[in-house]
Amino acid sequence: MATGTATPILARAGTALERGRGAEAAQLLAPLLRSSALNRDDEIAVRTALAEACLLQDDLTQAASALGRPPGAIREPIGDARLSALWRLHGRLTFARGEQSRAIALQSRALKHAELAHDSRAIGLAHYELALCYKQVGDSGIVRDHLTEAASALHAAGDRRHLALVHSLSAVLLAQTGRYDEATTALRQGERLAMAIQADDVLAGIVHNQANVALMRHRYDQALALAERSVGLHETLGSGHGLAVALATLGQIFVQLGDLERAEKILTRTLEVRSPVQFQETTGAVFDTLAQIHLMRGSYERAGEYLRQASEAYGAYGAQTMRWYEWSLRVLGVKLAIRRGAFGQAVEMAEELVATAGVPPAEAIQAELAACEALVAADRVAEAEERLSLCESRLDARTAPASWGEFLRIRGAVHERSSRPTDAHHDFAQSANVFELLGERYHAAVSSLALGRLAARAGNRASAERYLEQARSVFGALGAERDLQEVDAAQAVLAESPAVQPDLSPADHDEAVIRRLVDAAILPDLLARETATAIVESIEADAVVVFTGTPGSDVRVVASAGCDNDVARALARAALQGNREYRDGLLLSEPLGRDYDGPRMCTIVAARRMTDAATRRLRMFAAVARQGFELCGARERPRLPVEQINERPLAPLLPGFICASAAMNRVVEQIQRLQGNDLTVLITGESGTGKDLVARAIHVGSTRRAAMFLPYNCTTTTRELADSQLFGHRRGSFTGAITDQPGLIRSAAGGTLFLDEIGDLPLDVQPKLLRFMEQSEIMPVGETRPQAVDVRILTATNADLEQRVAEGKFREDLYYRLSVIRIHVPPLRDRREEIPHLSTFFLREACDRLGKPDVQLAPATLDLFARYWWPGNVRQLRNEIQRAVAMSAPGGAVLPDHLSPDLAAPPVSPGEGGTSVATLPSSPGNLSAAIEHVERDMIVTTLGRTRGNISETARILGLTRRGLYLKMRRLRLELAMADTE
Fold first, then answer.
1. CB distance 740 to 790 below 8 Å
2. Closest-CA residue to 413 (of 404, 402, 405, 425)
3. Domain spans in the chain, listed from the N-terminal domain onward
4. How many angstroms separate the CA atoms of 151 and 164, rounded?
5. Is residue 827 a contact partner of residue 873, using CB atoms and an 8 Å limit?
6. Which of the 8 DSSP states describes residue 502?
7. Does domain 662-826 have CATH number 3.40.50.300?
8. Is the pLDDT of residue 231 over 90?
9. What average pLDDT does range 317-339 have in this prediction?
């Protein structure tokens, strides 16, 4: 088939792919691929388009078949744009199979070829795929960087489909950091783009993310509608993976709504969906949710079994790349231990989780709260109270309201055990209000049960029966058998307790009520709910309504107590119209400030006129609530932007770590982005550039800073010694093993192990290192069982690891695992502005060490330093200065004569047709660097002679125009003159 015929079919297939119609595109492309008349370029275009179509249908086998061999195995020349597409799609296949590390390496190659081709769309696609990979790895800073680049490139290319996907992924990141309004805006932008091109698959994913944002905001009715819409779209599309993810979210929403039976049915259906695309992740989430369901129901054995299955599913997916799954499971494990009565074990598990490096703050708080709950249950109340005070200082109720509700319930239990029933009542009541506000029926019922127990022990029958009946109603609907038994026990206590008057409700405890309102002033909706509840309990009122509105407009009921929604709305309307009575009751209103849609009011209805004392108390509570609402409004008002001053501290990050160039600023930015995670980092750069200092800086900025930083050079030992030194051995495991040795990995437990010159690690030892990095387990020599060790791995090399992989000297799978995050340290010649700063630092260091004060660097020496090309980089500069100071007299100056002969020889200008012997490395180990230096000088010199004419420069040097461009890019050369062609 001729190229002229292929072009329109490719165009039609491209339109189908833009709309997400993979089956339609495959039908167009499959016959085209079988044609023998396609030229090589069109064949690759057809293969990549067909692979895209197969991936849209979750058909990994057919996608792999369409792509064929990896680009690295193709011998004939292929254009950079086509190479970029091939590498990107091979990366997508690898990612779909759960191999994130390898996928990152492949997508990086795709990006490199896209940039060489100057193809905006290919650049945007590669950045988007890298963002997806790093999201799975867990580095949000790098994800944001790639998304920013992707959005810019895709906007320039006019690719609305992938721009919508970028908006959707950006929204996920925003929502995870609590920026829900910005996330909603981004999702709306993505929704408009998807609808404009009729891309229903993209729309289904965006609607699913909208459901997740609503779920995070505890807007469960809205989340339910969106999740059901997403499920419907995925069912129409026939996407197995997308449908499974949407169903898993729908099941989680029903759990929050308290419909456990329906949730379990949906989750069971999710497990029946078949898709090869990252399904272990979804399966793990489903088992996680099923464990939560059975924990609520009191089926502890089944909950434990589902936890085990979730752990296995996540482990199959790659536990080391998605640590947040581990945190979720471990927190759930602590709660299960509490339910089983293993309080000591629960505390130990929680403490171990909190002490683990890299634990997210939200999960750390949950574990701390669970530990406090276990301590209260074990009657270790003083310890629980102390730990709760620490939790309170770290807990923000605005961003974690559910954790705040849990905190209040546990603090109430501490007050109850400490004989402070009034404080306990207020905490339990506010906890119930928090969970009711969030729509979390089960947890609200748990707090109601606590209130009922408290009232039952006090003999307050009316309150106890009301609270216990509320709890029984919810637990019965959920099938929570163990909790129903707790309700029965509380009612048995109530039956045996004598009736006590007055009511437990602290009507005359004004200070406690005020404290309760002050505690609620963190969330305006919670404060409104607490105001209504506290006034009903404290004053002889039948109902209280907090609402906003103006005369002539509709009202918005914010909260009510003692009446249903219809009656609350009628009371609010009557108050707005100025009525003093409602049916058989009297109305009294108090202002509570203003909200965004008008004045805020509190109206009460009572069967008889209130006493003067009750009226004064009402006005006092209203004044406290008014101040609380003002405080909430001040928190929610947008702050004026503060001008950021982007300056570096003058003191180095570490001794010898100087940052005074744009190149090193980029390195520092990468180090700072890594502070919040525990990822493996590969540091590359020439010998002597300071890779060890970068590794130390990463360690110092990490959560492991207080633990050990242990460096190890992989070039120093044989295979046998490397195995023993890294992984340890038992006594008698080999000749000469006269004692047990823990090995470096176990010695660095809790800290960081820095493997320098990783490219020289013996090939036979590499599989054991790979296993440790994937499973966090080692098998010491002579041991029969693996041992778990928590260590972060940093690596460095000056070798070309890709070349070593090609030569069979380095394992490909280990290479991919190591290169998830790369930091390249530039050579000293590319950051010459740092030479004076480094020289000064090393001069002071040498003077102190050698006892020669006041030695100075002569201007001629500094000038020579600035012109020299430093093949040995920073290490060579340091050694030169130490040598020169040793040769100088105290109080003297370091002259060029004090320097080594290579440095002191006069350099020859490249324009004079030669390259100075002084500027070439004397060591044979620096041959590649010398060749690079010569190439750089020849290109710069020839460009100067041709006045920047690329074609003429390429002709003189015996290169093609493209070959010259590639060399200039590799050497990081910028054009001094514009191309005159």
1. no
2. 425
3. 1-54, 541-636, 662-826, 828-904, 906-981
4. 9
5. yes
6. S
7. yes
8. yes
9. 73
